[in-house]
Structures are given as C-alpha cells and as structure tokens.
Specification:
Strand order of the largest sheet: 21-22-1-23
Shape: globular
Mean pLDDT: 95
Low-confidence stretches: none
Bound molecules: uridine-diphosphate-N-acetylglucosamine
CATH architecture of the largest domain: Alpha-beta prism
Strand content: 15-25%
Largest sheet: 4 strands, mixed
Number of domains: 2
C-alpha cells in the first residue's frame, strides 16, 4: 500500500509549476468524442482520473494516442458502442460526462449510475432533468442510465441547484440538439467555461459560459481542434495553503490569478501576503496565521474543493474559526484524522468549529478522499516530527507528481510502498 511519509517543519520555499485542470480535462475529454475528426488536447494533467477517463473512452472504441505526457490525440470516428462500462464509472464518477457527449452526438448513450461517493451523496437528477427537457427518454435499466432520442431539440432549462456536472453534461448534449437551448442558474466555474470554449473551438455555438445563463444554438457537426486546458486552480490553491501553513514563500506558476481570487482573499485575511502576477501568484507567510470564518459556495465563492486545505491552516491559526460546508455534506472527515495530530475541532452538521493550536505533531493518518488527503499532507508538512499518510491513491487521482513538486519546494516527503520502507526513511531523516 502506497503511503507518503513526511518529516514536517520545513517552510516551503521556491517555485512550483501547476498542471492542467483535472476537472476541466474530464469534461473536455468527454466532449472530444463529439466529433469524428482528430482532436489534439494539450496541458492534460498526468493524474489517475484522467488516465481512467482515457481508458473508459478507449473501451468504447475511441482512439487515444498519448503523444507525450501532457498531450493526447483523440479520434472518435470508429466508436463501437455507446455503453460505458461499470468498471470505469466505479473508478471515476465524471465518466458520466460521456452520457451528455454521446447523447449529443449519437442521440443515444448508456452509462451505469454512479454510486455514492465519500464526500456525500451526489445525485444526478439535474443532469437527467436536462436530458429529458431536450427530448430524450431517460430510463434506468440494470443499473445503467439509458438516454435516447429521435431528435434532441433545444429547450429552456432551469437548474434548481447550481451544479458543475449538470451544467457541463447538458451543455454538451444541447451543443448538437436542434435549435436553441437556454440553461439558467448554471455553474460559473472556470472549468465550465473551459469546456464551453473547447466545444466552441470545435464549431459549437455556446454563449454565456461563466455567467449564470448559457445560451446554445445546436449545430449538426463538430470538427477538429487543438486545445490547451486551463491550469488547475485547486492544485494551485493547495500549494498556496501549503506555503501558508508552513510559513513559507512560494511562487505558484502557470495559473490564472483571477480563478484564485477567493483563495487569495482568504489567505490575506488569515495573515499571508499574496502577490499576483500575470500568470503566477506568490504567497508569503511570516507569522502565525489568524483564525477566520469561511463558507464554501459555488464559484466565484470559496470552493468546496479548497475546504480541507483551509481547515488545516485554521487548525494552526489563532483563535476559533468556523468553517461551513454548503455543497457536500460529508467533507469534514479529515478533521478526525487531524485530531490524531493534535487538531481541535468540533463538527456540528455542516459546520466545523476549529480551535487553532500552536503546533500539530506527526502521526499516521489516512486520506479520506482526494482534497482531504492533500490537506493532511499539508498538515504533515507543518507538523513537528514524522507523519505517514495512508491511502494516497485518492491524492494521486488529482495531483500530478505531488511529492516531487513539494520536494522541489524543500519539503521532506517520500512516497513509499511499505511500512518497512517508511520506517527506514523515518530513521534516516530523524
Ligand atoms: C464538481 C467537481 C468537484 C467539486 C464540485 C463542486 C468535477 C469532476 N468535480 O463535482 O470536484 O467539488 O463540482 O464544485 O468537476 N446536485 C444535485 N443534483 C444533481 C447534481 C448536483 O442535487 O443532479 C448537488 C450536489 O449534491 C451538490 C451540488 O449540487 O450538493 C453541487 O454539485 P456539482 O456541482 O454537481 O458537483 P460535481 O459536478 O459532482
């Protein structure tokens, strides 16, 4: 079982390059199947979720050619079926984006119902409501969602809840529907905009992505394109909080600072200096952080995917902080792990009351999910002594070369695959 072993206490100092956005890439890869022409996608992050998505696409006959670590050619002219396998959807929920993409292109798709996920129950009723509004019949058969239509026709769709997944999935299907679709109460996340820009670069006619109303004129064909994925704002934010929690000085490069505004604002509020440049941000932390309150919200609010990272920073801050999680109901599990390191927090419903401590101490902890796992690594970097983080397969789903990038900033972190190896490392560094 792979683990990270960390000797904490080094301030992170230096420069780090951010990879392409995983969540944008997942939508864009699915959308790439909507043309028969070959599409070149660059700045693809080399992370597990992306590789699983590419496998899911290969399984239905998409030709995937990884021409370099961060570039792939996708050709979907010889798709052999419109049924995505349960194995894929089990590993990665976002393979449900193939539902919207295949439905848009072939007017038929079959994707197993995604199961529960460890950050809370994650319904997809809004995705299905959107497909139905476009004229598809949607049934659940043998554990799979089957969507089909003679013709998809444009419609006026109001999303009851702001949902990234539903916005992207409906947008894809509507891109090849007859006539005009208006989606209201859309998610405004940067990756929604990136998927829309990608579809437009293939000849789609989508306007308003990034606002809460998206207008789409369906087109008959999409064509070849070359497209570079935006930088990952959650990876960037994670390094920004790692700098803050370790009293470091880090230049986070290859970012779009606008996408990081909510994160930067919170970092400044808790006592860090944040300097913005054209495509980088520098975070400097020289003193103990100050507690604050934070509530997760859809973009441009504070992202739920950055909640565990700020939770760890606030665990080391002065005073009491209140963290309210308004998107997913089960995103505080990292606080139980953090308690093993001396963190003090009380969770009541969707609120965590965190009392900052002066120091955390190393312990063996387990990553409960992707972002929570990254947050526990930050805790280990800031803690006194040795921390072992188990279940790092979650972290590897979304962070490219996480340990290597951290080592580049002076962190003492190694990936090991046995307790014995971890012990050897601990002896060596202590
Ligand atoms: C995406 C991101 C995830 C991020 C989340 C919120 C990807 C691959 N994943 O997830 O990292 O944490 O956005 O920013 O991009 N909901 C419904 N019905 C639906 C769909 C969603 O009630 O049909 C609810 C969810 O339970 C949740 C809220 O809407 O409370 C937002 O979820 P959504 O934005 O859809 O998240 P995902 O797209 O799954």
């Amino acid at each position: 079982m792979e683990q990270y072993i960390i000797k904490g206490g080094n301030p992170l100092v230096g420069e780090v390059e951010i990879s392409g956005a995983k969540n944008a890439a997942l939508g864009i890869l699915a959308a790439a199947v909507m043309t028969d022409d070959t599409v070149l996608i660059t700045n693809l992050p080399d992370v597990r979720d992306i590789n699983v998505m590419l496998d899911a696409m290969s399984e239905i006959g998409v030709k995937v050619e990884r021409i370099s670590r961060h570039e792939a050619l996708i050709t979907s002219s010889s798709i052999s079926g419109v049924s995505v396998s349960y194995e894929s959807i089990k590993k990665i929920r976002a393979s449900y984006y193939l539902l919207g993409a295949l439905l848009g292109k072939y007017k038929r798709a079959e994707v197993p119902l995604p199961g529960g996920c460890n950050i809370g129950s994650r319904p997809i009723d809004l995705h299905l409501k959107g497909f139905k509004a476009l004229g598809a019949s949607v049934t659940i058969r043998n554990g799979a969602i089957c969507a089909e239509a003679q013709h998809l026709r444009g419609s006026h769709i109001y999303l009851d809840t702001v949902s990234v997944g539903a916005t992207i999935n409906i947008m894809m299907a509507a891109a090849m529907a007859d006539g005009r679709t208006i989606i209201e109460n859309c998610a405004r996340e940067p990756h929604v905009v990136d998927v829309a820009n990608f579809l437009n670069s293939m000849g789609a006619n989508i306007k308003g992505a990034g606002t809460d109303v998206i207008r789409i004129r369906g087109v008959e064909h999409l064509h070849s394109t070359e497209y570079s994925i935006i930088p990952d704002q959650i990876e960037a934010g994670t390094f920004m909080f790692a700098a803050a929690a370790t009293k470091g000085d880090v230049m986070v490069k290859n970012v779009i600072p606008k996408h990081l505004e909510a994160t930067s604002a919170k970092l400044m509020e808790i006592g860090c200096e944040v300097e913005e440049f054209d495509s980088s941000v520098r975070v400097v932390s020289t003193r103990r952080l100050q507690g604050t309150n934070v509530k997760t919200l859809p973009y441009p609010g504070y992202p739920t995917d950055m909640q565990p990272q700020i939770g760890v920073a606030l665990s080391l801050a002065t005073g009491t902080s209140i963290v309210t999680e308004s998107i997913f109901e089960n995103r505080f599990k990292y606080l139980d792990e953090l308690a093993r390191m001396g963190g003090q927090a009380k969770v009541e419903g969707n609120t965590a009351i965190i009392t900052g401590v002066e120091t955390l101490t190393g312990a063996r902890v387990s990553a409960p999910d992707l972002r929570a796992g990254a947050a526990l690594v930050i805790a280990g970097l800031a803690a006194e002594g040795i921390t072992i983080v188990d279940d790092i397969r979650y972290i590897q789903r979304g962070y490219e070369c996480f340990d290597e990038k951290l080592r580049g900033l002076g962190a003492e972190i190694r990936q090991v695959d046995s307790v014995r190896e971890a012990q050897k490392y601990a002896w060596r560094v202590s």
